[in-house]
Amino acid sequence: MAARWKAVIQGSNNSTFPTPGTYSIALDILGIFPTYEVESETQTAMNGTQIGRRKFRTVLEIECIPFSTFDWQRITTTEATLYLIQEILDKSFCRIKTADPANGERLPDRYSDSTHFPKTAALLPFEFVKCDISMSKEWASGNEKLILTCYSKTL
Q1: How far apart are CA 8 and CA 96, in angstroms?
Q2: What are the phi and psi torsion angles at 36 (to 5°)?
Q3: Phi and psi, residue 21, nearest 5°
């Protein structure tokens, strides 16, 4: 059974992500959940007024479908996680790319329908500078759960 949605993570040493030299992996996902970090700074000017500014960092959390620890026929195995770490996240530039339906990729509607979800769809492609990886055991089903938390490059 094919997954409903896929997220494609890419890594390259070139910021333009050229076809040769860009590594990719398509992960079966349950969804992509946006959150936001606020960085604020307040200082007092010499005349006593407060000067403040806020910057927001977008964080996308990708929750993958729990995958088997032993099923080598599916891409979402522990091997895929190691490939993600060693071949993609090791590169200078990383992103979550827009879906290419011709390759069987499909994202949740709010990330692909720019008519009804213009602000959310505009988040992709999403370049990130940090990616936290969380693996948890789902032993009752013989699976592992992978969650990627990606922090945007710009504030």
Answers
A1: 6
A2: -140, 140
A3: 105, 0
Exposed e or buried b per residue across 103-119, where buried means at least 16 C-beta atoms within 10 angstroms of its C-beta: eebbbbebbbeeeeeee
Say how far apart CA 136 and CA 114 lie, in whole Å. 34
Q: How far, in Å, are 6, 18, 47, 69, 112 from residue 107 at the CA level?
A: 6, 22, 52, 25, 6
pTM above 0.85, yes or no: no
How far is it, in rounded angstroms, from Cα 62 to Cα 149?
6
For residue 2, the model assigns a pLDDT of: 61
Rounded distance, CA 13 to CA 25, Å?
16
Which carries the bigger pLDDT value, residue 120 or residue 80? Answer: 120
Binned at pLDDT 50, 70 and 90, residue 75 comes out as: low
How confident is residue 69, by pLDDT bands cut at 50, 70 and 90? low
Residue 70 CA, chain-centre distance (Å), reads 25
Q: Which pLDDT belongs to residue 76?
A: 56
